[in-house]
User: Fold this.
Amino acid sequence: MPSTPARPPSPRLTPLHRHCLTVLLVMVMAVAAPVATAQDTGALLFAESASTTVRGAAATAFRSAQDLASAALGLIGIRYRWGGSTPETGLDCSGLVRYVFQQVTGVTLPRTAKDMSHLGKEVELSDLQPGDLVFFNTRRFAFSHVGIYLGANQFVHAPRRGREVEVAALDSGFWQGRFNGARRLAGVLPSLLPALVGEAVAAPLNLPESDVLP
Assistant:
């Protein structure tokens, strides 16, 4: 009966072999490091891009709100006209708001104060900012009158027949008792606020040539 051949002895690593393997491992890690660095750099650049976009959008929304208040003040003295939508023909309350938003932002709002009251974000009385819409019950139903808040408890509006666009005090007895609420449109409606995340994602990520992966 033939004898079973003996297995060759397992190779043993000499100090030289171990040294070579160590060098090879270090080289692999050195090659992998730029990949991680490029990924980290990309994440950092993305975060910076998104942060810059957010700050820019906030500044744009703030400027839009201030511009709304300024544009509304420029209409003081325009005569009231029921159904009026331009300064040339006269303005009613919603016509005033609609005209100002169209001129400042290019956004066309609904025609009535009631419909405008469904837009944007509800704002507490204590959190009012210039450019916010303020609503009142002046015709025996809620949200039948609208004006644009200016700050310091003042708002601009087109009051009624026989009057002109004017500034009124929000905390006066008449208006305070008829106040229905406020809405913020500037920086809230999609058409008034840049798409923050979308812009950041779509922005090209320009890495240095040494960091671009093949």
Notes: The chain has a mean pLDDT of 74. The chain has five helices and eight strands. The two ends are 61 Å apart (CA to CA). The longest helix spans residues 15-73.
